[in-house]
Structures are given as C-alpha cells and as structure tokens.
Amino acid sequence: MLTCAIIDDDEINRLTLEHYVELTPNLKLVASLADGIAGLTFFQEGNHVDMLFLDIEMPHLSGLELLRVLTDPPEVIITTARQDFAVDAFELSVTDYLVKPFDFARFTQAVQRVQQRRPVAAPTAAPAADIPTSADLFVKVNSRMVRVNFDEVLYVEALSDYVNIVTLKHKYIVYTTLKALENRLSPFPNYARVHRSYLLNTQHIESIEDNTANLHGGHFVPIGKSYQDSFYKSLQRI
C-alpha cells in the first residue's frame, strides 16, 4: 500500500485524481490540497507520503517552486496542462510527467513507475536496495522529449552547458549539466563519475589500461587522477 497526496488548484482535476486513486487498490489518499501553500504547510507539519501528484501552475507557490523548497520530497508525478515545463521538472528528479487531460491507463503507468523505484523485499525478508528495474529516462533533445534507456548508454561527456550522451547507435546532445544528470542517475549503481567531464556506465567496460576505460564499440574514456582510487575500489566490489 502506497500513501499519496494531491496538490492541484483545479477542483475538477483533483476530483479526477481522487477517483483514479480510489480505483487503484494499492493506493491510499492521505491529502487532497488546493494550492502550493497548503502543500508546503502539509509537509512542514511533518506529514509524509510515498507519492505526490503535483500540478505546476498554482497561485502564490507553483509546483516546481514547492519541490525546490522541500528537503525530502516523495516520489513526484507532475500533472499539468503545460508541456514546456518538462525539462525543469525532470531536473528536479520527478518520476513522471502527465499532461492533462490524461486517462486512467496513463495514470496507472505513472504509478507503476513509482512502484518500480520502490525497495523490493528480498527472499530473506530483508529490505532490498532501492535499485530501479527500468533505466528509462526522458531527456530534451532540441525541441523533443526523447526516452533514453540508460542501460544502453556507454558514457556521458560534459560539453560546457550541454552533455553528450553516447550509446552504441546514437548520440544525444542535451542541454543540462553533467552534475544534474549524475544526480538523476544516482539510483543506478552501474554509473560512476570517472573524470570531471565523464560519467561512465561500468556495464560496458571491456578492459582498463593506462587509466583509460575501453568500452564496447571501440570507445575510450579517461579516468581522472582524482577519481581513480574511489573508482577502482568500486570495481572490486562488483
């Protein structure tokens, strides 16, 4: 059972989401709030939920502004009529981005993504690490939001205010910083920062020689001196 809250200034949208939550057996609605200020008060009073359905455009305090001031936000599913806030939202590590009007099937898909990011009980009944089962994330390439499977990414290279995401078949130039993308990929243990300009997928390493990682497809990534000790220690634990 996952607890959830709704923050949306449109009553019809709140009622729709409340109905969708009621139709979902493993969701329990804790709060349905009409604006960002009420949402901020809810969390400042010490309330916690597993999942937050959050509108963006609201008076006094927008959904994105609320996310920026929360110190420990839950899994967030954005629900908005605007498509042009997607990049800002994903920079804040939201789980999904639903554009109104959306149907129950799309709502269910977003809930399933939250469930995939939740810890899963191991056979010994001990809590498992929070490792996602899917590495699909959205990135903005020019004017398009593109789904990229980060299991297939070889490495990410910093290019000033952009990054170059390299797979065996494609290269994606994305307007973001390497640090921001590193934060988004932090749940995935196979990613390692190996250089001030490179983020590496260790699943694609064929060999390491002279502090250079040789990757599938004939790609090479340098391992910076300040990163070598921690990186090599992490490889020994794999």
Can you characterise this structure?
Pfam families: LytTR, Response_reg. InterPro entries: CheY-like_superfamily, LytR-like, LytTR_DNA-bd_dom, Sig_transdc_resp-reg_receiver. Keywords: DNA-binding, Phosphoprotein. Residues 3-115 form the Response regulatory domain. With 238 residues, the protein is of the alpha/beta class. The protein has two domains: 2-117, Response regulator (Rossmann fold, 3-Layer(aba) Sandwich), CATH 3.40.50.2300; 150-236, Beta Barrel (OB fold (Dihydrolipoamide Acetyltransferase, E2P)). It contains seven helices and 15 strands. The strands form four sheets. A five-stranded parallel β-sheet has the order 2-1-3-4-5. α2 packs parallel to α3.
Which structural class is indicated by helix and strand composition? alpha/beta
CATH fold description of the largest domain: Rossmann fold
Q: What number of structural domains do the residues give?
A: 2
Low-confidence stretches: 121-133
Order of helices and strands: EHEHEHEHEHEEEEEHEEEEEH
* Biggest beta sheet summary: 5 strands, parallel
Globally, the shape reads elongated
- How many strands in all? 15
Q: What is the straight-line distance between the termini?
A: 33 Å
The CATH architecture of the largest domain can be named as 3-Layer(aba) Sandwich
CATH superfamily of the largest domain: Response regulator
Level-1 CATH class name of the largest domain: Alpha Beta
Specify Rg, calculated over alpha carbons. 20 Å
Strand order of the largest sheet: 2-1-3-4-5
Look at the structure and give the mean pLDDT: 84
Strand content: 25-35%
Helix share bin: 25-40%
What is the tally of helical segments? 7
